[in-house]
Design goal:
Layout: E1 24-25, E2 28-29, H1 36-41, H2 62-138, H3 163-168
Antiparallel strand pairs: 1-2
């Protein structure tokens, strides 16, 4: 049985995590102690990167590290600028969203008040209609419901029948059984 083969060393692409000349060393990727897998697993401790250190660069590699440091700082500044733009955009969107929510709440409240007013108006309309119907019926003959009542019945004094119905009805519809006297 043959032992498993080791994967070939990783090559970095230009512009991605350092220069093309940098490679994985015992210290880690681009001189950072540990590996990227330490960061993913959570065992990475945030120590300052030698690339981003604020100290003066060593004289032996002053120009390559200085140029790379300037490029990384420029990328960092650009990323910070984009984050500020996104935060400003987010705040604007949030303000617009909050305004829309306030408008929606106000519209809901106005709709609720309008519905309440509508219900109250419908109730008043029904009450007025009932009163009008009652008054109209109170003036109608209780026998034919076509003409206004006009006859006063004797001896009970009810005023509920029209003249033609009073002449043909033998007793008062309210008194039931008491004969009318003419």
């Amino acid at each position: 049985m043959t032992p498993p083969q080791q994967p070939p060393p990783l090559r970095s692409e230009p512009g991605a995590l350092g220069s093309a000349a940098s490679s994985y060393s015992p210290l880690g990727l681009n001189g950072v102690p540990g590996s990227i897998w330490d960061f993913v697993s959570g065992s990475f401790s945030p120590s300052p990167s030698p690339i981003l250190s604020a100290g003066p660069p060593s004289s032996s590699s002053a120009s390559p590290n200085g140029a790379e440091l300037a490029r990384v700082r420029q990328q960092l500044d650009e990323a910070k600028r984009k984050i500020r733009q996104w935060e400003e955009s987010w705040q604007q969107v949030k303000q617009v969203c909050d305004a829309w929510q306030r408008e929606a709440q106000e519209a809901k409240e106005r709709a609720r008040v309008a519905d309440s007013d509508r219900q109250l108006a419908l109730q008043k309309k029904e009450e007025v209609e009932a009163q009008v119907i009652f008054q109209l019926r109170a003036k109608q003959c209780v026998a034919c419901r076509e003409r206004a009542h006009g006859a006063v019945l004797q001896p009970c004094q009810h005023h509920i029948l029209c003249e033609p119905c009073a002449a043909t009805t033998p007793e008062c519809p309210y008194c039931k059984g008491q004969p009318l006297q003419w």
